[in-house]
Amino acid sequence: MNCPVLKERRKVMRKIILAYPGGRESAAGRLGFEKVKQFDNHLYGPSRPLTESQIYQLERAAGTAHYPEYVAAIYGGMFVAVAEPDSLDNVELYTRCVQTAAKRGTVDQIIAQALEDGVINQVEADAILRADSLHMAARHAEVLAVIQLHASKSGVAQ
Questions:
Q1: For the chain, does the N or the C end have fewer beta carbons within 10 angstroms?
Q2: What highest taxon heads this organism's lineage (predicted)?
Q3: What is the structure's pLDDT at 132?
C-alpha cells in the first residue's frame, strides 16, 4: 500500500522507538511482547498497529509527543501539551518563556536562510510552517501555564 499517511506514521513510530530508553527490545518488553519481531509487526504493520494507549505508554516513558503532533498535523492543527499543575511555578514559567523565544528565533532563522536567494520554495515554506507550528504550540502552552498557575492561587476554578 502506497499511502503517505502510513509512511509518515512509520516515521513517527521510528522516532518514538529511537527516543525510548533501551530501544525496541525494551519497548517490546514494556508492552508485553515476547518477541521483538511480533512487536515490529504491530509497530510498523498496517493490519494491527499499536493502540493509542500503547503508543502513549511509550511516549510517556520516552518523554516525547511525536504521535499527537503527527495526528494534529494530519488535520492541519498543532499539539499543545497542557502542564501538570503540580509542576508549575515561576521558574517553570520562565523556562517555558525562554523555550518559546528560542522557537520563535528558529522560525526567524529559517525565514532568513530561505530569503538569502530572494525566493521561498516549497521545501523552505514547509520548514517555516513546521517551525512556526512548534513556536505557536509552545506559546499557547506558555499562556495556558500562566493562567493555570495563577488561577489556582486566586481560587478561580480550573
A1: N
A2: Bacteria
A3: 96
Q: How far apart are CA 28 and CA 51, in angstroms?
A: 13
Cα–Cα distance for residue pair 37/24, rounded to 1 Å: 10
Give the domain ranges of the chain. Answer: 4-74, 85-154
Q: What is the largest CA-CA distance in the chain?
A: 55
For 75-116, how does the pLDDT look when each residue is reduced to its tens digit (9 = 90+)?
988 899 888 888 889 999 999 999 999 999 999 999 999 999
Scan for cell 518488553, then name that residue: 29
Supply angle C-alpha 133, 135, 141, rounded to 5: 100
> What are the DSSP calls for 117-135, one per residue?
GT---HHHHHHHHHHHHHH
Task: Identify the band that residue 39 occupies on the pLDDT scale cut at 50, 70 and 90.
Answer: very high
